[in-house]
Amino acid sequence: MDTELGLRERKKIATKTALHEAAMRLAVADGYDTVTVEAIADAAGVSRRTFSNYFTGKEEALLHGDSTRLASLLDSVEARPAEESAWPALRAGTDLVLAELQRRHLQRRDSGTDAGPGWLTRARLIRSHPALLAEQVATYASCERALAEEIERRLPGHRSTSRARVVAACFLAALRVGIQTWLDQPGDLTLRQCVDRALAEAGENFG
Which residues contact 76 (CB under 8 A, 6 or more apart)? Predict the structure, then answer.
């Protein structure tokens, strides 16, 4: 039974990823406004009904990559040693996610399978459309609540829900600033360098 459930879950993940990748390819090639749910489903080789089982609309499908990375970030922070304080755990978790993102990028490039739009192109697509930005804000807000719960467990002395929420909000804001800086600058700095700088400046009062 465990094996069956494992295979079923992997199939769901594969279908969700295929829909996300199809949505991104179409949005980059044809423009976000022209993309339809039907076109995404056709490109992924599934029915319109199957699409609806996974996503509420094309915005959610396009933001699936962000959701996946934020879920990985939360998992990485939760896996840090229990005695580690909040901000160092957040920094270490971010390092792991960025390293994995870079590893997958290099793996796809070296294998010749990375034919879809790159992460930079994807990020700029999202930033250029208000509907996608609104969906991204909702995605980050959902992660912020879960992250605050983990942060609260790592606060020294008397735990404070409000402080945990402040730390989570500041961390995610700094993360977004780092990413936006990387998108705006001409390529002199890597994504990791931009994120590290933003988190270092934000974390001066949370270390």
Answer: 92, 93, 94, 96, 97
